Amino acid sequence: MAFIERKKRVYPITPPLREYLVKYGREVKLPVGYDDLNRYDNAITLFDKGGNDTLWETVFYPQSAMKDIYYNLKVIYAELKTNGDLSVTRHLSVDRVDVCVYGNTRPFRVRVINTINDNFDYFYIKRADASRVYGLELEHILSPNRISYVTSGNSLVEEHIAGIPGDLFIRHYLQDRNLNKVRLAKEFIKFNERCFVRLLGDMHSSNFVIVITPDFEEEHYRIRAIDFDQQSYEGRKSVFLPQYFKQNNPILSLGYDCVSPESVRQYQKEEKAMIANRLNTAGNRIFSLTDIMAADTISTPENVLSLRQELAAHYRNPGFLACDTMGEIVKVSLRQVLKEGEHQH
């Protein structure tokens, strides 16, 4: 079973990482940031439709400041969605701002509504944490998913990733008679592989969503990470394998019933081949990112020492033992995927 260290410190964005973010259009000047949103003067508990506490609170700002804050939040939404085209904000209004009172990072969630058709969307404003930025960037480059986010000083703005939260999917969809068990199991195997290769941890069922897409005759499933705090931090390899979280056991059990060990190995190889292809096409961007990451401190020396030993044993690759930082471990892990891809040809 995977165990996560609850108190993970926030690592600052270093000048080299900031330069990278500027180069690739991720760093922009925003009119309000995380610290500004903390200046609320009242808050009430937010309940879901069933009357349950969501662990979020809706916050309220002084009347003198609220109009400006809400307008500037629409400006940020335009930056995130349309590269700053403010014409899209004409029919938008900020419905509410919530803060998550659970956990240490206390992110804000902004709900935006289209006043013409009542359609709504969310985005998040958080403290800029280097771990999370590396996680978002690696997801954007190495996974099948594109990620929209920007940084501004010590603030990080992320789009809402739509999908059915994994824990809700397990509760309400696993027994559906139309569920394609093989396709879901295959996607979980591939998700497991993606997380392990790029060392994204803490992927229990509350930290990913499942996107269902109707296909020609069946449904297609995509599992998407929604929390990137635990990018390359913990010292145990099991934390980077979603299969070891007990919350994910119902999906795992379903896979045991319908996927053979030979098929598991085939799906793992398929996913590694896809990651190798993305590495090859990413070119300088991934080299630049991992070089900056390798020189950065995003974990403790104890965690680095522990993880490099576990991965050296797992892959039978002594190259991991020479790593002094988590970023160096990620680089060796990605090289391992490229090497395995060459052996398959």
Give the secondary structure arrangement, pairings included.
Layout: H1 15-23, H2 34-37, E1 42-47, E2 53-60, H3 63-82, E3 92-100, E4 108-114, E5 120-127, H4 130-142, E6 149-152, E7 155-159, E8 164-165, H5 166-172, H6 181-198, E9 208-214, E10 219-225, H7 249-258, H8 261-282, H9 284-294, H10 301-315, H11 326-344
Antiparallel strand pairs: 1-2, 2-3, 3-4, 4-5, 5-7, 6-7, 8-9, 9-10
Question: What string gives the helices and strands in order?
Answer: HHEEHEEEHEEEHHEEHHHHH
| Share of helical residues | 40-55%
Number of helices: 11
Shape, principal axes of CA atoms: globular
CATH architecture field of the largest domain: Orthogonal Bundle
User: Could you tell me the strand content as a percent range?
Assistant: 15-25%
Average residue pLDDT:
93
Count of individual beta strands: 10
- Low-pLDDT runs: none
What structural class do the secondary elements suggest? alpha+beta
Major β-sheet profile = 7 strands, antiparallel
Query: What's the CATH topology label of the largest domain?
Result: Phosphatidylinositol 3-kinase Catalytic Subunit, Chain A, Domain 5
Distance between the termini: 35 Å
Strand arrangement in the largest pleated sheet: 1-2-3-4-5-7-6
Overall CATH class of the largest domain = Mainly Alpha
User: How many distinct folded domains?
Assistant: 2
Rg, Å, rounded: 21 Å
